[in-house]
UniProtKB/TrEMBL annotation:
Record PANTHER family: ANTITERMINATION NUSB DOMAIN-CONTAINING PROTEIN, N UTILIZATION SUBSTANCE PROTEIN B-RELATED
Stated name of the protein: Transcription antitermination factor NusB
Protein's GO biological process: DNA-templated transcription termination; transcription antitermination
Gene Ontology CC entries for this record: cytosol
Chain segments annotated as coiled-coil in the UniProt record: 38-93
Organism of this sequence: Synechococcus lacustris str. Tous
GO molecular function: RNA binding
Domain of life the protein comes from: Bacteria
Keywords in alphabetical order: Coiled coil, RNA-binding, Transcription, Transcription antitermination, Transcription regulation
Pfam family, one: NusB
Family: Belongs to the NusB family.
Amino acid sequence: MQNRSIARELALLILGQKADRTPSSCEQLLAQALTSLNSHLREALDQSADQLQQAQQALLDSELSEGENDRVRQHLNRSLESAEQVLNRLSASLEFPRLLLLADQQDIRLWALERSKAVFAAQPSLDSRIDAVMEGWRLTRLPRIDQDILRLAVVEIEAFQTPTAVAINEAVELANRYSDEAGRRKINGVLRRYITASTELAS
């Protein structure tokens, strides 16, 4: 299951590397996606380090009054948790290039390439069907990363028979890492409406 999550994240990054949306040179795009993933995680680690430093300074500067001390300690705990999560992901991601070269990790490479190629091949149809449930918006009005998360989730459901709950959860997790709170809510809502509309059409 973890391998498939890695493959989905790499597929998303492959989509982001391709400007003309054609399915050629996906192997090269995969290498670029690995570089992009490591860069993203390093930036997140730097942000967590800044948050930690701010919390530590706030703790030192506080007069340790009961209410203020509790607030600063909560801030520090949240920053520590965030830093730990980023460190864990950074450690794992730095292993991706090595793992992908190993024979027993070819499935990750294949899963990522299959998913990205499926999105490239079906993009006009995907966009039209997603647009149909956007409720006054168009897919192209969303940030590029949100568009690709939605496309990838629909391809997972339709082309790879991924359970809808899994596809939505994975899309939300990707949005948590690469989008913002508004993007996460939009993606979650659009996918739920898409699944409802698809179910009604099939019945």
